[in-house]
Amino acid sequence: MNRRELLASAGSGFGMIALASMLAEQDLLAQSPGTAVPGLSPRAPHHEAKAQRVIFLFMSGGPSHLELFDPKPDLQRLHGTPLPESFGPVATRRNVERNRLLGTRRVFRKHGQAGIDVSDLLPNLAQCVDDLCVLRGCRGVSVTHPESVYLMNTGSILMGRPSMGSWVSYGLGTESQNMPAYVVLPDPGGWVKGGAPAWGNGYLPSTFQGTVLSGGAAPIRYLNPPAGVSSTQQRRTLDLVNQLNQEHLHTRAGDTELSARIAAYELAFRMQSHAPEVVDTTRESQVTRRLYGLDRSETAEFGLRCLLARRMVERGVRFVQVYCGDTNGWDGHSDVDGNHARLCAQSDLPIAGLLRDLKSRGLLESTLVIWGGEFGRTPMTEGTTGRDHNPHGFTMWLAGGGVQGGQTIGSTDAVGLRAAENVTHVHDIHATILHLLGLDHERLTYRVNGRDERLTENSGEVIERVIG
Q1: Do residues 172 and 45 touch, judged by C-beta distance below 8 A?
Q2: Which of 338, 198, 354 lies closest to 288, judged by CA?
Q3: C-alpha distances in angstroms, 336 versus 62, 330, 380?
Q4: Which domains does the chain have, with CATH numbers?
Q5: Are 441 and 430 a contacting pair, CB within 8 Å?
Q6: pLDDT tens track for 261-299
Q7: What DSSP letter does each residue of 171-189 carry, written as one string?
């Protein structure tokens, strides 16, 4: 071999090493049967972090901060009067900015050592405020549901981008090879407006999309094998299918859809052995069942899904999203007080139970719990007793996972119309969530069409006061 041939061969070898490294980063390298499911092996975070997993409690429809976490004495005083001209023009739907201000019927009291104001609609959650970091100055972009749902879940008002759960799964993998990294528990009354793209993988490999489970006696449909088919027979069939798929994939490097299908076959087989135990809540103690409200008709359904969320993160699922509210949910256009009273009766006890249960098991410090919807509600009335959509100022809260509880950050203006102080855009909230998980939102990227894309698009700053 002459010098030219030696350099050419060595150069090609180094190139293949680099290619293998890049393919491994995106989990595109073929793996043999019985190894870790492609795309789901655990990954090291960018920096040390207390949070290792997430439960996102999504209040579908847009809960009113004015009825729950953000008391406004001036709104009560100005009830029935037009919005003062000093507030200037505001983008709303249906010209509700011309409507009169609507005071709330709710009573607020201070709770916990921090003295955080919470509405009488949330008596159980009020007892947990010292674990909550309440963000009162949240701000979004769009006044419509689908776009705001996408923004809160994917960082963009446009359909088709990866959801936050997909980004977290892509960045950290999963702690369990027997359950999906990202699980979604929709409300049985109907999916969130905007639908499945809210938990889709977008341009990330399909392995990272959310897996939809339901509540009830059979959360995972078609989990059990057909009658007469043994696990040994099924394993041998799967190995043959996997071998053929791998041969097919070998000639189509980079086909993430095929890689995801291969991973799905392997994961489904493993779930048949392990998922029944995960979703079986019958062995939970009566104390635990009461904690989640499983003994009450109004809280049993949502309480069961909150309990399933705890059982999943306990067993290594990385990201669980639990939706509260049917197709309309918290969308209190005609009777915001009645609407919120019904949904708080369903969710207050289970959410407080989830926080207490996680804390008692030593899981809260490593599990980040998020509460919020796609936007808030206007201080102006819609009809006589309703409120319209308000992305300009609303409330969310975080707990556990390295969060400094017992504090409020930010505020809205005197009547709760706009975020006014320490404003936290949705991108800031996303950057903070990723930081708590040990991920730098500017480094967690995926190359698409020659551009490094990320959850926070071109902005977003970590909210330092959130971090404990």
Answers
A1: yes
A2: 354
A3: 11, 8, 12
A4: 52-466 (3.40.720)
A5: yes
A6: 666 666 665 666 566 778 889 899 999 999 999 999 999
A7: HH--S-SSS-SEEEE--TT
Name which of 23-27, 302-306, 393-397 the model is least confident about: 23-27
Structure tokens at 289: 């069942």
pTM above 0.90, yes or no: no
Torsion sign (Cα): 273, 279, 282, 287: positive
DSSP 8-state symbol, 230: -
Please answer whether residues 266 and 37 qualify as being in contact, where contact means their C-beta atoms are separated by less than 8 angstroms.
yes
Q: Look at residues 342, 364, 349, 345 and name the one whose alpha carbon lies nearest to residue 292.
A: 349
Helices (H), 361-442: 426-436
What is the tens place of the pLDDT at every residue in 27-66? 444 443 334 445 567 899 999 999 999 999 999 999 999 9
Three-state DSSP class for 275?
helix
**Residue found by looking up tokens 């006014």 in the block:** 420
Q: How far apart are CA 299 and CA 440, in angstroms?
A: 37
